[in-house]
């Protein structure tokens, strides 16, 4: 899980003093020296990711069944999308199928499972419309948040902490409200992480303590009056993170220790020295060495499993984790990377699958695609469906840019004698005096005004939607297309 003390490198952060502890402001050297926003905090769930940027905006991507991406749909998004309604965000938290964001004013926003209900009556998305992020009214003056995928914990500016979790109305199971419990006995806190049944608190002096928050006999979270005393664990700690019932402590001497919720025991992990930051994935520990290298320990792989270096990542300034089998890394040049060996939608590759030969190493890295913005004939537009970037080419769904461009599109199927009478798809794009036909599967033939161009393209299906090769279509129809891959700006049809 994420800690607000997850650093963006000594050269990248500006420190504010809030309450009794130093907290990251979300403004760094990148923000000051570049007009292009850079990520300041990132979090991942089981198959989605969320990023806060130096300009205060938030983007989301990946698996989206419960609205956890935050774009107001349940459509999986293979390229990051900017989330409406959020501003001045300095930290994000995610786990499983939910997401949260913390603003510099101490407000917390939530979306995803239990927070983003279906919205009926939408003309385009009758069954896939979801609610946008909602403000959590029971949390104020917050400096740090963490979640285990169901409940969450917030540290306040004054060093106190609050537990929150969703509850269902017994008379109406579809109605979900949020319960808030003040964690008595917690003071001077700088950050906290929530395990299955326990909250670990790191205070401003580097001391870690535990607090049991769950009554296993009654199967529910404790009320404020039922909370036991806070129990000290260890001192001289700089960062705490968690995964399931395990917590990891980064000692100030650069070593790492493991604390288990069930055994209540702490043990030093061999193989980690000179570590400047730690994060977790599902049964994985990620560690950033002070030399900019990343090390990973798949600690569920048996007693012989040892930490190994993720060789495709170097010159790293900061790292973040997920509850899936992937993590995120910020290179010192400001580029956001993802690496992993599992659910690729959370890695924002653009296509949902990796582009690197996974046989070369146990974990491998890809570039997180830059969010796209769309301008068509001088007007800014947006669309519900995902866009795609496959082999460096732009792909878009039917309900995207074509109507705004004035392109008429149609689809039909016919029997193809070349394919032994099997049905083949025919897509037609008509623009001014030109008619483009994309015929067949993968690869498909491209015909312009009835003549074969000799060009072939691959039609893709993403998020259960047919995706069209935008650059090929624009080129054949004579429509201008400019794509700034650094900023993500796509300009179609001129001004």
TrEMBL record:
Coiled coil segments of this chain: none
Domain Copper amine oxidase-like N-terminal: from-to ranges: 376-491
Protein name from the UniProt record: Copper amine oxidase-like N-terminal domain-containing protein
Organism of provenance: Paenibacillus segetis
């Amino acid at each position: 899980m994420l800690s607000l003390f997850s650093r963006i490198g000594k050269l990248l952060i500006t420190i504010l003093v809030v309450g009794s502890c130093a907290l990251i402001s979300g403004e760094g050297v990148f923000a000051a020296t570049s007009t292009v926003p850079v990520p300041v905090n990132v979090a991942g769930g089981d198959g989605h990711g969320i990023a806060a940027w130096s300009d205060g905006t938030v983007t989301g991507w990946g698996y989206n069944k419960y609205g956890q991406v935050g774009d107001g749909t349940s459509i999986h998004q293979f390229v990051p999308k900017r989330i409406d309604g959020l501003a001045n965000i300095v930290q994000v938290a995610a786990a499983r199928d939910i997401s949260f964001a913390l603003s510099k004013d101490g407000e917390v926003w939530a979306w995803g499972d239990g927070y983003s209900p279906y919205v009926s009556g939408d003309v385009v998305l009758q069954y896939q419309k979801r609610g946008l992020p909602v403000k959590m009214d029971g949390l104020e003056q917050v400096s740090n948040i963490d979640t285990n995928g169901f409940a969450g914990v917030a540290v306040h500016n004054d060093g106190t902490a609050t537990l929150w979790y969703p509850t269902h109305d017994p008379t109406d199971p579809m109605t979900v409200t949020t319960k808030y419990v003040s964690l008595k006995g917690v003071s001077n806190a700088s950050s906290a992480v929530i395990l299955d049944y326990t909250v670990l608190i790191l205070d401003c002096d580097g001391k870690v303590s535990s607090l049991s928050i769950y009554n296993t006999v009654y199967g529910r979270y404790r009320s404020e009056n039922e909370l036991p005393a806070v129990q000290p664990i260890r001192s001289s700690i700089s960062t705490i993170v968690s995964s399931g019932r395990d917590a990891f402590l980064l000692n100030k001497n650069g070593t790492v220790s493991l604390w288990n919720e069930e055994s209540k025991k702490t043990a030093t992990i061999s193989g980690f020295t000179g570590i400047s930051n730690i994060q977790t994935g599902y049964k994985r520990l990620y560690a950033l060495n002070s030399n900019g290298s990343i090390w990973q320990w798949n600690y569920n792989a048996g007693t012989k499993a040892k930490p190994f270096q993720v060789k495709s990542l170097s010159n790293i300034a900061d790292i973040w984790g997920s509850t899936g089998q992937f993590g995120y890394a910020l290179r010192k040049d400001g580029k956001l990377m993802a690496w992993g060996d599992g659910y690729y939608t959370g890695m924002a590759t653009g296509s949902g699958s990796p582009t690197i030969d996974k046989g070369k190493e146990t974990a491998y890295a890809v570039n997180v695609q830059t969010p796209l913005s769309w301008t068509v004939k001088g007007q800014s537009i947006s669309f519900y469906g995902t866009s795609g970037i496959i082999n460096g080419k732009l792909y878009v769904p039917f309900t995207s840019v074509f109507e705004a461009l004035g392109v008429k599109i149609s689809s039909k199927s016919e029997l193809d004698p070349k394919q032994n009478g099997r049905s083949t798809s025919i897509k037609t794009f008509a623009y001014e005096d030109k008619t483009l036909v994309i015929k067949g599967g993968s690869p498909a033939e491209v015909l312009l005004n009835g003549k074969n161009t000799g060009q072939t393209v691959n039609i893709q299906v993403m998020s259960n939607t047919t995706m069209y090769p935008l650059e090929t279509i624009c080129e054949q129809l004579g429509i201008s297309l400019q794509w700034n891959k650094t900023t993500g700006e796509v300009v179609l049809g001129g001004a």
